[in-house]
Amino acid sequence: MTAEYKIPEGHRIYAIGDVHGYADILARMHDLIEADYQERPVNRAQIVYLGDYVDRGPDSKGVLDQLVERELHAPDFEHIFLLGNHENGMMEFMAEPEGIRQDWLEWGGIEALQSYGVEPDMGKPFTGQLRTLAAQLGEAMPLTHHEFLKNLKLFYEVGDYFFVHAGIRPGVSLHKQTKQDLTFIREPFLSHDKPHEKRVIHGHTAMKEVEVKHNRINLDSGLYRGGPLSCAVIEGAQEVRLLQVKPD
Q: Is there a contact between 64 and 53 (Cβ–Cβ < 8 Å)?
């Protein structure tokens, strides 16, 4: 399919879908990106991470370690980190564990806690443990991780592309979208078939394979369900390429 959208010449975007605590798979994706870049050098290369780095998988801490490290020691790339609903849930859990975000534990938060060495008592109701678990997580998490989470962006845009975790609300200007929609929306975004202001690159809704639509591309290919981690390579007015890493 001929590309209908473009970004400035000499600029390449690598957009990575939902990671969900699979640090080993993310490391392999970084290797693929490095190899692609070395084979096809470009003036400006950016990696845009679409959020949901934590929860569900075995090593949320390892994922954040890796992302913090890359920002410091991968000079060939600019790194853009977007906020996913799982990072938002983790931060809200630490701030107000007995509030509405205690359901974060049911989203895969237990695995995230364990990756930081925090062990819930699975033989007791969570209700009486929430404040203790939140405090333990806050103490176990390195300052660099707290800062990383605090500085996540809601969206990023370049050329004719708009990068976001979940999607947008159709009919609302891109710069008037709410945080709730940008990090949580599914419908009516997913079924909307008319063009948006820009082509939306998103994750959040796990599918068996990458969805490439004329108005959006969904890069959540269900890594935590056994699918691959997917990355879209976007440059100029070329057709979008895909890089994928499948679990062993």
A: yes
DSSP code of 8? -
pLDDT tens per residue, range 15-54? 999 999 999 999 999 999 999 999 999 999 999 999 999 9
Q: List Cα–Cα distances, 79 to 70, 107, 193, 209, 219, in angstroms.
A: 8, 26, 30, 25, 17
Compute the distance between CA of residue 41 and CA of residue 202 in angstroms, rounded to an integer: 25
The Cα 207–Cα 218 span in angstroms is 8
- Domain boundaries of the chain, sorted by first residue: 11-95+142-245
Decide: 217 and 234 in contact? Cβ < 8 Å: no
C-alpha dist (Å) from residue 167 to 32, 102, 182, 240 = 26, 24, 5, 19
b/e burial code for range 133-164 (CB count within 10 A of at least 16 → b): bbebbeeebeeebeebbeebbebbbbbebbbb
Q: How far is CA 25 from the centre of its chain?
A: 14
Residue 197 tokens, joined? 């202001």
- The CATH architecture to which 11-95+142-245 belongs is 4-Layer Sandwich (3.60)
Residue 164 near residue 49 (C-beta atoms within 8 A): no
pLDDT at 2 over 50: no
Q: What is the CA radius of gyration of the chain?
A: 18
d(CA 113, CA 136): 9
pLDDT (tens digit per residue) in 73-95: 999 999 999 999 999 999 999 99
